[in-house]
Amino acid sequence: MKLILCALLFVSQMGIAKTDPELEKYALKIIRLTLTQSSELEVFHKTFKQLIQKNDKLDKAKKAHIIGSVEKQINRSNMESLFVPVYVKHYTLEDMKALLAFYESPAGKKLVKVDPLLRKELAQAGLEYGKRVMSDIALQIQIESSGPRKPAEKK
Fold it and tell me: Nearest-CA neighbor of 21 among 82, 84, 70?
């Protein structure tokens, strides 16, 4: 009986995540350095607000209440708390120390500053490229579906 209880206790403890406060501290530093502009959060709030504003089934007061609630609950602090375990899961302490050293370097600071603009420009370039490819494919399909043309008959 004691053996069964010990085994159950052992198995139940396996599911409880053990966290290292030092890892969490480094993760939070990295998150705060790399998310200085909170651009993802701002984009989320802006997009959500536009979505709610377009909803004709809600009156103005209800829309304001919903938007306020979302902005209050989905904030930087809550997002950081959500991100820390993910960083801890994927990075060792040595990884985080190296990342932190990089992000505090001139090149790392530039990456943090330029990255949002870079991502925006890359997304736009990818979108334009995708449109050109789709246009070319549509033209090719149109040519292929029209079949070979028969030469005009001589009279």
Answer: 84
Q: Residue 152 — pLDDT band, cuts 50, 70, 90?
A: low
CB 23 within 8 A of CB 96: yes
More confident residue, 97 or 68: 97
Q: Which of 34, 9, 152, 17 shows the shortest CA–CA distance to 100?
A: 34
Give yes or no for residue 136 having a pLDDT over 70.
yes
Residue 131 has which token pair?
């449109």
Query: How many residues are listed for the chain in this entry?
Result: 155
Judge whether residue 145 has pLDDT over 60.
yes
